[in-house]
Amino acid sequence: MIRLLLPCILLLLAGCRADIADLEDWRDGIDRQTAGPNTDGLPPLMPPEPILLPENTAVPDLFAQTAPRPCTDCTAAEVPPLQRLPLSRLAYIGHIRRAGRITAYLQTDDAVLPAAPGQTVGSEGGRLIRILPQALHIETAGKVRILPLRRDDDGSGRPSGLRQPRHTEPPTGSAASAVQE
Fold it and tell me: How many CB atoms lie within 10 A of CB 84?
């Protein structure tokens, strides 16, 4: 039995030696592949040349918020309504804050108009710079003018532009007959 076992063991050991050689060949091939290309004969890389721009190039700020400029050469029909009258003829009657934005309401002779910060107000070319509950701050020719909130004359404290109309006449027509029945 030993005679039979000895050749089997030798054959088995010879087979293990062949597997190790194949494994070493495979590992050497992987090492050659991951080593990268042979760069011994190539010149070194040169740094890129800097990009030179002309000195006086002004890049506009695309995100800057600019206020609209007052109309100086407009015809009467082209002038926005808030720029048609002087500040002395505009009355601040209230404001509304909605979704983080505040809008002031100014009363003219015949209308109530909204105004936002940065907007041009009055024929003097003033710019609305601040909206407060009690007053507006308007910058005109480098000076800040304050336009106070106009209150109702009846002492209610309600802004005058928010008066409720009083109905003193009785209803007429079909609504009147429905009320009398």
Answer: 15
